[in-house]
Amino acid sequence: MKLELQGITKQFPGVLANDRISISVDKGQVLGLLGENGAGKTTLMNILSGLYRPDSGSIRIDGTERTFRDPAQAINAGIGMVHQHFMLVPVFDVTESVVLGSEPTKGPLGSFDRTTARAQVVELSKKHGLHVDPDAKIESLPVGVRQRVEILKALYRKSEILVLDEPSAVLTPQETEELFEIIRGLAKSGTAVIFITHKLNEVIAVADKITVLRRGAVAGETTPAAATAASLAEMMVGREVQLTVSRSKSKVLEPILEVNEMSVLNDAGAIAVDRATFEVRSGEILAIAGVQGNGQTELVEALTGLRPIDSGNVTLESKPFAAGSPREIASAGVAHIPEDRNRDGMVKGMTIAENYILNTYHLPQYSKRGLLDRKAISAATEKAVKDFDVRTPSIDTDIASLSGGNQQKVIVAREFSRNVRLVIAAQPTRGLDVGSIEYIHRRIVEQRDSGAAVLIVSTELDEVLALGDRVAVMYEGRIVGILDAKDATRERVGLLMGGIVA
Amino acid sequence: MSRTKKSSKGREKVSASSVPAGVEAHNAGESAEAHQQQVAARIRAGLFAIFAAVSVSITSGSFGVDGNFAFWSDSIGGEQVFFSVPVALLWGIVSVGFIAITLLQLLRGAKFAWRASIGIIAPALVIALLARLLDGTTANLTVFFTSTLSFAIPVGIGALAGIISERSGILNIAVEGKLLSGAMVGSIASSITGVAIAGPVAGALIGALLSLFLAWLGIRYKVDQIIAGTVINIGALGITSFAYLRILQPYSEYNRPIGIETVDIPLLSHIPILGPIFFSLSPYFYASIGLILFFTYMIYRTRWGLRLRAAGEQPSAAGTVGIDVVRLRYRAMLIAGLLAGFAGSYIALSGTGGFGINTSAGKGFIALAAVIFGAWNPVYAFGAALIFGMTSAATTLLSGLGVSLPPQILLSMPYIVTIIVVAGLIGRVRAPASAGRPYDQG
After folding, report:
1. Chain-centre distance for alpha carbon A317
2. Which chain A residue has its CA at the smallest distance from B28's CA?
3. Which residue in chain A is spatially nearest to B20 when comparing CA positions?
4. Angle between the N-to-C axes of helices B198-215 and B325-349, in degrees from 0 to 180, rounded to the nearest 10
5. Alpha carbon B5 to chain centroid distance?
6. What is the pLDDT of residue B7?
7. CA-CA distance, B253 to A383, in Å (whole number)?
8. Which of B4, B31, B33 sits opposite A481 (nearest CB)?
């Protein structure tokens, strides 16, 4: 089937999310839809899947105009969505998950015909080479397999237009490559595929044609043959972008952070970090790679005093550190850029200035006898806002009203406002626009160059490879390998991320 | 196992742990769960062992004492059959039972079906306790069993209502309020019309009305479902009490419902001893058993049930495949309301008294305990309702006989066990993941 979207416009209060967007994809074709966070990709897909209705514009399938009032109508029209956050019931098995909503039944009570359903799922997975155990519980499956279940769901509903929203976000590079094989196979058998992503290399690898979105509108169309990563990035951002982080060779000095056989438990009391041993030295960046949920969160929380260390020892500049509260650890010279800035990085509803002094307000420079020195706080914040290029009308603006990039800049400014010996940055650029990513990377490298030790945790392989002087990989709570930058190829790190230790 | 290369400075530490790869190729989340289950299994074994030890000590202290029981042989109020059993024998059986399940629990670990085992041993324990506490007086077991059932019916059906709504994703704290309203409206409807069937029908309708009101607050306005349910409970108690004092007391003809007569099943009801217990009961009992079996099948084996469970676990998964989650939840709440109101009408119509202030006496909350104890499965929940009913019946019996030991201790037992279950100490009960959370449909 051929799908055409023409002049789709969708206005939300204060935001023009989609501005006369037109895209099309043909039978057997893979369309790469590229855009940054906030470019309007998700809104467009929600319109296509019947969750939103456009203010204007039309959706045509094989030339005839269609309107979708709810997801059921979009599904019936042959559109299958694979959402970024999987839409699966954890306690269901694969068969139940695939057929939910279009279950085969028998008898007057509508009894679920499990035998038929299971046979259909088995047949479908054989036909498309999507191997899954039809009886496995969803919660026991790794994410890569859950994604296959999502694709099976779409195929089970006879989707001829398959939309994948950021499908590689949770996959290892190898799993991503498998996904591409599946996509190519589906295209060959006649499915039209829309592949939404912000990763430049992926569209070049898998798409037949590329449409780039910027600020809710189409910024350009091209083909993989005619495009380079740099040209796509420029289209996406609207100006020239430096894709690689320029940095000098590291001048490595003494170890700042030494972690020895550290184990950390998760909330359920199970081992999340399993005898991790590594060190971070002055003047270097150690980047920890790994697929989400392999113990990185617990590792960072333990090193910043937010979670107790179960066993092992940690020293900061040769002083034991395990018993420290977050404040003690911070005043010892540790800067922490938390993984979830909304939860742990700032207090929404408080101003930029208040957020800026969040962990220094008690120091004599900002408060005397329990009273805050407004003047000193304003002066310091004004300077920080200027230094870190935070775009805001005023320092008394609610931090919640800033864009993600500017919020993150306030957090980084706050953390770097102290004398920093160690930077712990977890997912420092998650969800940010390319411009802010560039800026924050530069600031982190500056800290390294001025002699701080830097520990970066990231699930974005590109970020890990761009920044790390050394790359450590976490898998199921263990550090399964530490590589020097020159040995850290995409393939080697990717294999380690999948737990394959050569 | 790889070791990383020495870095240029030669200070690199060995990176990976010394355990061979593959040995620990487990999923971190899975192992956490398995670990918890093992701990829970051990705690259960410990609890069972304590029960076993107590039982043995009671056994050894009961030699030479007899427990005196009676049954109505043909019909209630007719001829009694007396018999007496050595108390030590009963406790001996209980002891052996607890020792057996302690051992099984230790051997089988997390896989042991402890709920079913408790289901088997709990009745024996209650009877043994009863025998021990009788202190020379005679207990009529026919009365004991029928009063167990009369407690278990509203609790079990109330629990079924709770299960259906929570499986769909709406927390149903308001079961108590629906029981109470169902009782009053059922009594009035039956009194005014003089038709027996009008009672349960009217009760079910008022339950449905309250249930839809709760659903409307929770779904349409996203009011916190616990608060909305609490408001309904308090409101129902206030309004029914007011109506009782101002209307039903002065005009008592509105509170003289046609009692729902017990139905004797031909032939079966004449079986000595068993007949009066099982085959000469209120039609409510047979309807309840039917409803529980029917909805258990519906929840686990039909398309409706699959969708219901999906909506309660992960509504977005249901919504994106075209299931109308909002409508599904309203319908589930409608069914839950009908059931709860029906159960409430039983309270007023089964006896002779009609409606009284707070006549449900917390049975709706006990139903919620049965929901949890029964792990959101209607059959298990009814089993829990029966156990609660037995302790209640034993308490009533003992206080009627004037036994010196405070029987309230016995009455509180199942709730203590429920608290332990809720705390997750002796086994994981997993509530529907999205119960209580409003769903935003796009």
Report:
1. 32
2. A476
3. A501
4. 140
5. 62
6. 37
7. 83
8. B4
The answer on pLDDT for A241 being more than 60 is yes
Instruction: Quick: pLDDT tens for A318-356.
Output: 888 766 788 888 888 999 999 888 888 999 899 999 999
Give this prediction's pTM. Answer: 0.80
AA letter at A94: V
Under an 8 A CB cutoff, do B322 and A75 touch? Answer: yes
B317-340 in b/e form (b: 16+ CB < 10 A) is: bbbbbbbbbbebbbbbbbbbbbbb
Classify B401 as helix, strand or coil: helix
Distances (CA, A) of B250 to B236, B242, B246: 20, 12, 7
The angle formed by the CA atoms of residues B141, B142 and B148, to the nearest 5 degrees, is 85
Cα–Cα–Cα angle for A11, A14, A19, rounded to 5 degrees = 35
Partner residue opposite A109 with nearest CB, options B31, B302, B317 = B302
CB-CB under 8 Å, A502 with B13: no
Closest CB to A279: pick one of B13, B26, B27. Answer: B13
Judge whether B197 is closer than 8 Å to chain A, CB to CB: no
Q: Where exactly are the structural domains of chain A?
A: 3-237, 255-497
Higher-pLDDT residue of B426 and B314 is B314
List the A56-61 sheet strands across, edge first: A15-25, A3-12, A56-61, A64-66
The answer to whether B302 contacts chain A (CB < 8 Å) is yes
Chain B nearest C-alpha distance from A314 (Å): 14
pLDDT value, residue B168:
96
**A positions 218-277 inside 8 Å of B (CB):** 252, 255, 260, 266, 268-272, 274-275, 277
| Distance (Å, whole) CA A194 – CA A207 | 9
The tally of CA atoms less than 13 A away on the side-chain side of residue B383 is 18
Q: Determine, for residues A480 and B2 on separate chains, whether the beta-carbon distance falls below 8 Å.
A: yes
Of B4, B25, B430, the CB nearest to A499: B25
Contact A112 B302 (CB under 8 A): yes
| Topology at the third CATH level for domain A3-237 | Rossmann fold (3.40.50)
- Comparing A128 with B178, the larger pLDDT belongs to B178
pLDDT at A170: 73
**Residue B128 structure tokens:** 């043994």
Q: Inter-axis angle of helices B175-193 and B198-215, to 10 degrees?
A: 150
Q: Among the listed ranges A263-272, B213-222, B296-305, which one has the minimum average pLDDT value?
A: A263-272
Bridge partners for B2 per DSSP: none
Going by C-beta distance under 8 Å and a sequence separation of 6 or more, which residues neighbour residue A171? A143, A144, A147, A179, A291
The verdict on a CB contact (< 8 Å) between B302 and A142 is no
CATH architecture assignment, domain A255-497: 3-Layer(aba) Sandwich (3.40)
List chain B residues with CB under 8 Å of A474: none
Contact at CB, A71 and B319, closer than 8 angstroms: yes
Kindly state whether A484 is in contact with chain B, defined as any CB-CB distance less than 8 angstroms.
yes
Is residue B12 predicted with pLDDT exceeding 60?
A: no
Question: Residue A453's pLDDT is what?
Answer: 94
Pick from A353-367, B36-50, B230-244 the range whose average pLDDT is largest: B230-244
User: Environment class of residue B25 by beta-carbon count within 10 Å: exposed (0-12), middle (13-18) or buried (19+)?
Assistant: exposed
pLDDT above 70 covers a percentage of chain B that reads 87
By the CB < 8 Å criterion, does A339 face chain B?
A: no
CB B213 within 8 Å of CB B232: yes
Q: How far is A380 from A398, CA to CA, in rounded Å?
A: 17
- Please tell me the predicted confidence (pLDDT) of residue A246: 66
Interface check for A91 against chain B (CB to CB < 8 A): the answer is: yes
CB-based contact B7 A484, cutoff 8 Å: yes
Sign of CA dihedral A221, A223, A225, A228: positive
Is A310 in the B-facing interface, judged by CB distances under 8 Å?
no
Exposed / middle / buried, residue B142 (Cβ in 10 Å: 0-12, 13-18, 19+):
buried
